[in-house]
Amino acid sequence: xxxxxxxxxxxxxxxxxxxxxxxxxxxxxxxxxxxxxxxxxxxxxxxxxxxxxxxxxxxxxxxxxxxxxxxxxxxxxxxxxxxxxxxxxxxxxxxxxxxxxxxxxxxxxxxxxxxxxxxxxxxxxxxxxxxxxxxxxxxxxxxxxxxxxxxxxxxxxxxxxxxxxxxxxxxxxxxxxxxxxxxxxxxxxxxxxxxxxxxxxxxxxxxxxxxxxxxxxxxxxxxxxxxxxxxxxxxxxxxxxxxxxxxxxxxxxxxxxxxxxxxxxxxxxxxxxxxxxxxxxxxxxxxxxxxx
Length: 292
What we know:
The chain has 12 helices and no strands. The protein is mainly α. The chain has one domain (3-291). Helix 2 (30-52) crosses helix 9, helix 3 (61-88) packs antiparallel against helix 7 (149-173) and helix 4 (91-98) packs parallel to helix 12 (273-291). The longest helix has 33 residues, at 179-211.
């Protein structure tokens, strides 16, 4: 498989994830979906972690802390905010807000690490945030039911920040550890944190919802656990190893386009002119941030 084919397939899988989430949330609460998705993924992660643990370099106390933070950011924080956002706003809106992640990296790096952005990067940051603010005001679904649209956008901003925290911890851990190792251990740490934090109060409800799931629901959860959570990440890593990071990053611009198209086909979600304009503004801002 070529790097281009691997990246395109990964982007297509990620774009379809929101469609599957929208469907499965008709019968499951976000917390139950998060539990099931990562418990099923753990069936693959645990044997791999056990088989490679002795060969992998050990973690320092600081790296253990980073690993736990990365896991919490990935599993409960990232997943739950995405699912809550999809309850309150459209797939296209969530995909557009996800595009602003490079702008949030720039902002957090300046605030927390003291890095000095260029003027072009600052202009890109301003454009990306302006596009997000416009989406908040203009991206309400035209067919109604958008009373909590602003809440959905807020959850997606939190989702983007969670992903940025995960990436920052992830990059630090990659200085001494392999990609697959860090991905596996972070997912397992986040899953453990999720179970410990919510199990005592929600386990009975989760079990009841799981027992009532339809065959379609089980199929979608299994696909999300194995193909989206594991498969897409491996495809993207495969492509990333065979081309530059900048070239690989350009493929992410296809995600909102594919997500909006799939949502229109399978969910009947319209894409308005206002949303398209907001998307162009956000894309222009992210382009400046990445190119500076």
